[in-house]
Amino acid sequence: MSFFTLLLNKKSSISLKVGIAENNEYCCLVHFQHGQEHVIWQKKPIDLTTFIKQQFQPHTLSHLIRPIPYQYIWRKYYVTANTHSQTTQHKQVLQMIKQELPIPLEEMYFDFTTTEIPNQSVKRVSIYALRKAFADPLIINKQTILDCELHCWQRGIHALLNSEQQNQKMFNYVYQNKAFTFKENELIFCPEMPEDAISLESLCLPSEIIHPEIYVLALGAALWHS
């Protein structure tokens, strides 16, 4: 799931998606073409915008997905009547953001999703907000999508798990020494480290992977879907 689709060009007919993750030393780009995974490593310092232009023709790109720290994303979950229209729901979300955040709406990007609860006349609403002051410097071009790093991590982990492990219904993950899970899209941090938590050490990665952490993030970003 993506929280923030920023300045997205809806008319693009090319499906090439590039996941981008970086640390202080390297930038890692991952994309899939004809079902094959391609990984590009570039040592810093670099101009990321120029580097992207050198690696990909503009007409071949549909999305550039960048993981962002979960701490910068404000979240709110609540349950409401299933009879509300999309317009009414949008007004309700705006009102809730105004009430709970001391930041003008024009200074934020926000998004929300709704999920019907089976056998009940209510639905679950998830709101996400991000300050433009943080987000705007990360926007490379009109195809840029900012996604929570923990969702990217989750997708990257699942892409690397074998089929037997995939049969499990729920997973606990470890990212930067913190254990977390998702329950109905709600991010939940575990107070203690679960014994079954999946970490980098649980994975079998190719030897040519320079920095496993940013590779998993870039891989998960490349697997983003709207």
Give the arrangement of secondary structure elements.
Blueprint: E1 4-5, E2 16-22, E3 26-33, E4 36-43, H1 48-55, E5 61-68, E6 74-81, H2 86-100, E7 108-116, E8 122-131, H3 132-135, E9 144-148, H4 149-160, H5 163-166, E10 173-175, E11 178-183, E12 186-189, H6 212-222
Parallel strand pairs: 2-5, 5-9
Antiparallel strand pairs: 1-9, 2-3, 3-4, 6-8, 7-8, 10-11, 11-12
Helix pairs in contact: 4-6
List keywords for this structure.
226 residues, alpha+beta, Dna Ligase, domain 1, 6-stranded mixed sheet, 3-stranded antiparallel sheet, 6 helices, 12 strands, 24% helix, 35% strand, globular, Competence protein ComA
Order of helices and strands: EEEEHEEHEEHEHHEEEH
Number of helices: 6
Strand content: 25-35%
Main sheet overview: 6 strands, mixed
- Using only CA atoms, what is the Rg? 19 Å
Shape: globular
Range of helix content: 10-25%
Q: Uncertain spans, ≥5 residues at pLDDT below 50?
A: 6-13
Structural class: alpha+beta
Strand order, sheet with most strands: 1-9-5-2-3-4
CATH architectural group of the domain at 73-129? 2-Layer Sandwich
Just give the CATH class of the domain at 73-129.
Answer: Alpha Beta
**What integer is the average pLDDT?**
88
Strand segment count: 12
* Termini Cα gap: 7 Å
CATH topology of the domain at 73-129: Dna Ligase, domain 1
